[in-house]
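Friendly challenge for the regulars: who can give me the structure tokens for this chain first? No prize, just bragging rights.
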Amino acid sequence: MSIRVLDPTFEEARTEQSVVTGLKSLVDCTVGLLDNSKIKVKDILDTVETLLRTQHGVKHIVRLKKSDASRPAAPEVVAAMAGCDAVISAVGD
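First reply, four minutes later:
Bragging rights claimed.
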């Protein structure tokens, strides 16, 4: 009888990424609001959008949506996030 030993580690290729500095203000910014498709998330994000516009001077809101809560965002959603100064991801449980 033989013993087979498996190595569960994964060597992922590393890529260099730049560090993004934090925003000092949201005035005139574009903010993405990511809906995870849960039942109450639209109500939460509607309120957040109102607060961002009225109290923080956000210029543009981009509404983004995942196909469902248990899957990663689709590539086109991730691409849309790249055009935002900030993204808020909400969970509507």
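The chain has a mean pLDDT of 90. The longest strand covers residues 30-35. Your move, everyone else.
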